[in-house]
Amino acid sequence: MFLSFAVAFCAMLMIEVIRYFKVYPVGVAIHQFMITFIDQKDTGTAILSHIYLLIGCGMPVWLNSLSDNILPGVSGILALGVGDTMASIIGYRYGKTHWPKSKKTVEGTCGFIASITLFVLITNIIYNYGYSFIQWIKFILFVILTGLLEAESNQNDNLILPLFLFSLTSTI
User: Does the N-terminal peptide bond of residue 25 adopt cis geometry, omega within 30 degrees of 0?
Assistant: First the structure.
């Protein structure tokens, strides 16, 4: 995964450069395609959300490359690919109770926490992480804290959430 994320990062960076400078013949087509996916967090001329997402998933893999503990290494994939995705889906479909001064919902946050916890508990059956009861309690607490950070963050959280969860799970 280390090399795969590095290659994907280089490819995405090159695509963004081609889009930004509208390099003939594909630059304009890439630009037209990409602008359909931007939101209020992509306010500058460079569209960086997709690169932040890739870095957010890859950075824990890169930082954890020398450790045998797998969960910190996949914390980016857990936080963004599982948790943030489920928070968005559940919050959009079922969200009724909004956090104060936020568009985000309590139901979305619960989806974030439940999806990561359930995903890791199910994958533990296959991989047996070897965690003690206390370590599992810590992990669930760390997921709750990350879910609350996601709920409170108004910026592009694709970099913050993976690093936060990585930092916490590295202590287990």
Answer: yes
